[in-house]
Amino acid sequence: MSRKQKYEYQFKLDLVNKVIREEDCVHGLSKLHGLAKSQLQFWCKLHEHHGEKGLENIVVKSYTADEKLEIIRYYQASGLSLIDTCAIFMVASFSTLYQWVVKFEQGGYQVLVDKRGDHFKKEKTAKKMVKKKVIPGINDSMTDLERLTIENEYLRAEVAYLKKLEALAQSKQVKKKKP
Fold first, then answer.
1. Is the whole-model pTM more than 0.90?
2. Which residue range is the domain that position 50 belongs to?
3. Which residues contact 12 (CB under 8 A, 6 or more apart)?
4. Same domain for 56 and 122?
5. Contact assessment for residue 62 and residue 114, using Cβ atoms and an 8 Å cutoff
6. What are the tens digits of pLDDT across the range 61-99?
7. 3-class secondary structure, 134
8. HSE (side-chain half, CA atoms, 13 Å) at 131
């Protein structure tokens, strides 16, 4: 999923090339074009680390907690700036990395885990489990209470069956051990 880009690829490339050829400085160009100085610095770093391809649209993506941790550890160990680190890992915004670092320092690894939508995932998983396991006596016209009552009875019977099966297996093992 990509977001709408505010600046065209060619515009970014032209500005970066001017900085590289030292035709103008970052401060002067950013002021002339109404850009944040840090934005132009970021484009220059993207170009430095990834070439012209780095100036193409950065796809905004979701990062796993492990990916975030890897980027944070690299940032802390390397001593590079937020802008440099984001350019290396193609993180779309250095404020995002800053937020990850602050959260990690305050709460550790667990705060890096994205929990958005978890309750929807749990509901879907529970519904899938019920749908996969065909329980006799349940139909769509039943109320939730009726459905849950029948499912509860079914699960109790299943647990009792499994306990008896396990007891039988254990008794067979005991008989085998006796000479």
1. no
2. 9-112
3. 43, 55
4. no
5. yes
6. 788 888 899 999 999 999 888 888 988 888 888 888 999
7. coil
8. 7
